[in-house]
Write a structure and sequence with these properties.
Blueprint: H1 4-7, E1 14-21, E2 26-32, E3 35-42, H2 46-56, E4 61-64
Length: 65
C-alpha cells in the first residue's frame, strides 16, 4: 500500500512542524494546512528531521516552530 507522500504532490503546500525539544529526544507533531497528520519521537538530530520531511512530504514548504 502506498503512503500519502507517494500519491500526493506537496509542491506549494505548507507543512507545519511543531518540535518539543529535550536533551535526549524531540517530540515532533506535523500538520498539513489545518489537518493533523502525526506525532512521533526522534533523536535530537536536525538532519534526521530534515530527511523525514523530505522523504514523506517532498517539495513542500516547511514551517517549523
Amino acid at each position: 500500500m502506498a503512503n500519502l507522500a507517494q500519491k500526493a504532490d506537496f509542491k506549494h503546500s505548507k507543512i507545519f512542524v511543531g518540535i518539543d525539544v529535550h536533551l535526549k529526544s524531540w517530540s515532533v507533531t506535523i500538520f498539513f494546512e489545518q489537518q493533523y497528520l502525526t506525532t512521533f519521537t526522534q533523536p535530537p538530530d536536525p538532519l534526521a528531521l530534515k530527511k523525514y520531511l523530505f522523504d514523506n512530504y517532498p517539495n513542500a514548504q516547511y514551517k517549523c516552530v
